[in-house]
Amino acid sequence: MNLSFFDQFSSPSLLGIPLILVATLLPALLLPSPNNRWITGRLSVLQLWLINLITKQLMIPLDKKGHKWALILTSLMLFILLTNLLGLLPYTFTPTTQLSMNLALAFPIWLATLLTGLRNQPSVSLGHLLPEGTPTPLIPALILIETTSLLIRPLALGVRLTANLTAGHLLIQLISTATTVLFSTMPAISFLTLIILFLLTILEVAVAMIQAYVFVLLLSLYLQENI
């Protein structure tokens, strides 16, 4: 049976049951559960330090009104980060390479930030659709353009995350396939591609972390506009 390069992005199933739910629940199993050694364990201390660092970075663009969103934003970033990193392991499935999955993560929070702005400060939120000092003939066109740019924000978030992870996984598979094929005929070239594969894997780890941060950071910036 011949497999294409894109088969790795299809959701696996067992006895006809999709396993994407298992893949999305696995990152939560890596977090510590409360017990008497919550602070004493080195791994728990490291995880708490990382969570504290992430929370501080995400709260920088927000004022005090937005700090109540810290739990949601930090949890979302940890989920995306762990999912992206687990997807780099061999024989694993990455749910965040699915556009539907990323849209399901982006759309509800984006909509919540938008509704928050419309409820708390409707005039300011609607004022973003029309820049100050706009000539009268351009008002209808600018309102249409700004409304379109506002509505495609969750789509842009989902497409950005999907495209970056999909491209990285395809590059890793292409180079690993070339390394295997060239090993028997041209060992020197195969060793060179193996080095490139190692460097690319390090790059993909960085991309997985950066994309998770950018995804949640943009959501926090959208939130700041509406509070």
From TrEMBL:
Entry's localization field: Mitochondrion inner membrane
TM stretches of this protein: 12-31, 43-62, 68-89, 101-118, 138-158, 170-189, 195-223
GO molecular-function term, one example from the UniProt record: proton-transporting ATP synthase activity, rotational mechanism
GO cellular component, one term: mitochondrial inner membrane
Keyword Membrane part of the UniProt annotation: yes
Membrane protein topology class: Multi-pass membrane protein
Alphabetical list of InterPro entries matching this protein: ATP_synth_F0_asu, ATP_synth_F0_asu_AS, ATP_synth_F0_asu_bact/mt, F0_ATP_A_sf
Matches recorded under NCBIfam families: ATP_synt_6_or_A
Family: Belongs to the ATPase A chain family.
Full protein name: ATP synthase subunit a
